[in-house]
Automatic annotation (TrEMBL):
The keyword Hydrolase applies. Residues 75-219 form the HD domain. PANTHER family: BIS(5'-NUCLEOSYL)-TETRAPHOSPHATASE, SYMMETRICAL, SLR1885 PROTEIN. CDD domains: HDc (cd00077). Residues 22-41 are annotated as: Disordered. GO terms for molecular function: triphosphoric monoester hydrolase activity. PROSITE patterns: HD. SMART domains: HDc. This is Deoxyguanosinetriphosphate triphosphohydrolase-like protein. It holds the Pfam family HD_assoc. NCBIfam families: dGTP_triPase, PRK01286.1-1, PRK01286.1-3. Belongs to the dGTPase family. Type 2 subfamily.
Length: 405
């Protein structure tokens, strides 16, 4: 859909009528006074940045583990890139940039060491105790596990920030929920019993741009890391028409360009094209539904910030290439198998002797808990580990630790 440049919000300083308003937000679970210098959404974002969970992202896997090299994305650098794209989208659409950035910064808090491998391993061992979901774990971190404030556990974020964290990928219940995930994780249900996040509605437009920014960031930067690793080649990119056209454009403008610069010129054009596509589609959707409030966005019955059909097909093609060429590559699968072994070993070791979780805040009480509650504490502890800490702990507890190189 064509982009209406005249409708962009650059430099206007005016928030759209359908944007989330930090000054009339829906509050926090534990009431607090307002700040004289920051909006509530600014305070949410700042609290997120100052957490231990945010700092731990620097040593958590995105695709390639830290041992593969210093230049590959980590979960932290990916998160920062997502936040940058989310903020750019929010500014163009005249949304609340702080809310969009905050949702982007917190969206991966619940990821385990070793990326999705660790999540899959915890899901397997916890299948009898409610399973493991990184989105639900993110909610547990910001509402319970971060223990910094005198008056409450967690960060006491606003309703809008928590809604964005839980529902940025769409409603969790009702006809618009993802049929592939019909069961709402129990931690989310438990929190909603105290502070209803309205799981059957869509999230704010700020949360929606954070979600699509995640897709744009990893589609682009996983290609970059894939080229750096050698698992991808420029010839492989030629198989996707959209990428082939970008490469043709760069070659025509900069013949003979060295590989590193050539890659960057492709990636920056990819991000720009995807961002502009989302803005154009969102503008068209907004003209259709004519929302007069953030609530109208939630009740629209569809996602507003999304790809056009043509870009959605490109998105699918890129994801298939990344899955085939990188995520399921034999070398990567070997490392994933060894990483999963570390997570499973740690889970069983901690279930057998909880005191081996030497820094767990509830270490004196865990042994006496029922099996499901103990398992959840163990999952909390393992999910909070960085790659490096998980490896070093495994070496402390076991005679042999699998090689992740």
């Amino acid at each position: 859909m064509a982009l209406d440049k005249d409708a962009l919000g650059f430099g206007t300083g005016q928030r759209a009528i359908f944007a989330s308003d930090p000054w009339t937000n829906r509050g926090r679970l534990h009431p607090e006074g307002t700040s004289t210098t920051r909006s509530d959404f600014q305070r949410d974002r700042d609290r997120i940045v100052h957490t231990t969970a945010f700092r731990r992202l620097k040593h958590k896997t995105q695709v390639f583990i830290a041992a593969d090299g210093d230049h590959y994305r980590t979960r932290l650098t990916h998160t920062i890139e997502v936040a940058q794209i989310a903020r750019a989208l929010a500014r163009a659409m005249r949304l609340d940039e702080d809310l969009a950035e905050g949702v982007a910064l917190v969206h991966d808090f619940g990821h385990t060491p070793f990326g999705h491998t660790g999540e899959d391993a915890l899901q397997d061992v916890l299948s009898a105790h409610g399973g493991f979901d990184h989105n639900a774990q993110s909610l547990r971190i910001v509402t319970k596990l971060e223990r910094r404030y005198a008056e409450f556990d967690g960060l006491n974020l606003t309703w809008e920030s928590l809604e964005g964290l839980v529902k940025h990928n769409g409603p969790l219940t009702g006809p618009a929920a993802d049929p592939l995930h019909p069961v709402v994780p129990q931690p989310i249900l438990d929190y909603c019993a105290l502070h209803d996040l309205e799981l059957g509605t869509f999230a704010s437009l700020e949360a929606q741009v954070a979600a699509i920014a995640d897709d744009i960031a990893y589609n682009t930067h996983d290609i970059d890391d894939g080229l750096r690793s050698g698992y991808l080649t420029f010839d492989m990119l030629e198989e996707i028409p959209f990428l082939a056209s970008l490469m043709q454009e760069v070659r025509a403008k900069y013949p003979g360009l060295e590989a590193a610069r050539f890659t960057h010129e492709i990636m920056r054009r990819q991000i720009t094209a995807m961002v502009e596509d989302v803005i154009g589609v969102a503008q068209g959707n907004l003209r259709d539904i004519r929302p007069e409030s953030a609530t109208d966005i939630r009740m629209a019955g569809r996602v507003i910030a999304t790809f056009s059909p043509e870009m959605a097909e490109t998105d699918r093609q890129i994801k298939r290439m990344l899955m085939t060429r990188i995520y399921r590559h034999a070398d990567v699968m070997r490392v994933r198998e060894n990483a999963a072994r570390i997570v499973v070993d740690l889970y069983h070791a901690f279930m057998a002797e909880p005191r081996e979780m030497q820094t767990h805040y509830w270490i004196d009480q865990i042994a006496g808990l029922a099996e499901p509650a103990k398992a959840r504490h163990v999952a909390d502890y393992i999910a909070g580990m960085t790659d490096t800490y998980a490896i070093s702990t495994h070496r402390r507890l076991f005679d042999h630790t699998p090689d992740l190189r």
